[in-house]
Amino acid sequence: MWKHKHYRNTFLIAAISACLPAAIIGLFVYFIGTANIEAEAKRTHQNQVSFATERIDSNLAHLETVIAQWSFNLNLSNTYGNLDVERDFYNIQQVIYRSLTWIKASDPLIDEVSLYLDKQEVLIKENKGIQKFTSKDSLQDYRALVSYQRDIYWTDTITRNPNAAPYMLVVRLPGGLATTEAALIIEINAKQLNRLIGELEPGGEGSTMLMQQDGRTISLGLNPINQPTELDLLVARVIGENEQGSYVETLKGQSYSISYATMKRIGHIWKVATAAPLAQLTQPVELLSRLVIYSGCFGLLLALFLSWFASRQSYRPIRKLALLFRSGKQSSEGTDELDFIASEWKHISRESQMMQERLDTQLPTLKESFLLQLVQGHLYFLNEKEIVDRMEQYGWDVQNTIHSVMMIQMHGLSHHEGKFSPGDEQLVTFAASNIVGEATNGRAMACSVINFQDLTVGLLIRFAVDMSEADIKATLYHLADELASMLYNLLKVHITICVGKSTRSLSSLADLFDDTRKALKYKKLDEQQQILYMDEMMPEGSHAINYPFETEKEIIQALRMGSDTELYQGLDHFLAALQQQSDKEIQVRQGLLQLFGNIQNTIMLSGFNPLHLDEGETLWEKLFHMDPKTTIQTIKDKLIAPYLQEMHQTQDIQLKQLVEKVLHTIQETYMKDISLEYCADLHGTYPKKLSVGFKQVTGTTFIDYLTQFRMDKAKRLLIETDEKINDIASQVGYQAAYFNRTFKKHEGITPGQYRERQSK
């Protein structure tokens, strides 16, 4: 076989290809690659500095936001200018001192908090009390703070605290166009700021610093600010002479990568810089390059042996993978398989990333919508296993858990101490749900907050199944008491909390929430905080009840949903179950009358008058004297059928109005990332109902209508403008690659081809 020229040439090429690359790569890395590694290290170093700068900027921005919020919440019963610091005990002790203490505790970067009163010429500190100025120079420094043009700003003019950083945050009070009467002064904790900056220093061998735009140093990280090292001085000089980026400088024979980034503070620009030695990055590369050369020489014999086998086997998996990617697509002759695979893989990765981003964006809304539908009874058609599977898909751990229910109701918005007024119901409910969520976050039990948008907040609490009933009750009572006190103190509205019962069945949650909500009606009107307990209000009896409650629940749910077939089948099943459980005819008659009353109550709650439906005919006495089958048939004919007819007529009108609103939403926000779930949540319905209704009214699905609408807009932009295709894709709500594929799928040609054809 060696005599054959083609085989010999192929074998020699394979052998040389197997041996030479390792040696070439080693030499390249050793002589040339070091410079590239340094450049890559500089880029990596710059990225690290940028990321760290964003984190530091986030901490300082959080501090600014917190202080700005506190300046609005520092409400006195008098103005700052008219405040009597010697006699006004309430404002000084109960408001100012307490607020200053809370402000200091709100962020670890705060070292000291002071309030300067300009008219009184005093300085109030949270830990030292009221201080008067001993010198006119010091007083003039503080007066300069209140005359500054900005409402909130950073300054380094009067910092005298050795434990504080040279910069402090000042908030003029009150802000805006009003005459400034006071200044809230926040001194930054130097140790905390130095620690935050010092975390950038790699292994203690480099340098980090925070500087002002004019070159003055704010922090040197772990080094004292008054004792800069030679490296610190070098870093300061480099960033003063160069623009933002990364540079390599040499000090005492050692190379350092110096990078810095800027961040905007109020009225200032600060620079975060760091220097890291390059030796610790390049030394491993030099050693690795030598090993590559030695390994290439040592592997020569092995490479000669494996070349023949590798040349035949290496292409086989590539060919299989290329055929797999080309399944269902046209084969493009002359295209390199590896390039094709890489292109397809990038495309799949981009689509996967887009889908993941959309899922992450929509997941909280989907979870909230699912839980709201579950507790309101709209998911009655799901059995226990299906509910468990759905909840686990959304990220809830519901295996081997006990579920407890709690309802929180706010009322008394208009009382004299309140912060809200009628019309703020949704705002109050939103604020309460956020407070409850923050209060329950991080506790041993898992809690889910449900915002009912009607001054009512639900709380679904999950405990481990091995937890005793007494411990569960004690935990719920303690939590209810804590939430009632917290909500009243923060919102200044009356709070009523009802602690419901517990269950291991997820399908019974709707009934538990309904019973707990009804129990809220037994609250006392004049109490500011009150807690009701279902176990104490509604004790369970021991008598046997021959009544098919579960079947009645299915009937009521089908009645609410307007499901004709399920409703009529449920009535027949109810009669059969009632006759099977009862041994006397009077019990069957009483059960049917009970069902009749509950159906009437459900119809009334849905906004329909039963007397209007049965044309004023009184059915109670007639039903009592009928046999059971005739009673069921009469309920169907005289009550159910008229109700369903009027309900469907009303639903058709409401459905058309709903779809019209959704169409308007599409026309206004088609350029954004909207979905069926988003529109359903925006217009107060659930996705399944909107999907069916949209198809019924428009004759097409939601996604098809949205896609066609976007394509029409894109075609108009392609014809009427000269904008780039990527920009047009962004304007109609798509990423460039996905837009090209979607456009070609609908029009048969690419956007560029469409524009060219229309221009001709």
From TrEMBL:
Subcellular locations according to the entry: Cell membrane
Q: What is its main location?
A: membrane
Domain HTH araC/xylS-type: where? 660-757
Keyword set for this entry? Cell membrane, DNA-binding, Membrane, Transcription, Transcription regulation, Transmembrane, Transmembrane helix
What membrane topology does the annotation report for this chain?
Multi-pass membrane protein
Which residue ranges run through the membrane? 12-33, 291-310
Per the UniProt record, one Pfam family is HTH_18
Q: Which PROSITE patterns match?
A: HTH_ARAC_FAMILY_1, HTH_ARAC_FAMILY_2, PROKAR_LIPOPROTEIN
Note the SUPFAM superfamilies from the entry. Homeodomain-like
Protein's name in the database: AraC family transcriptional regulator
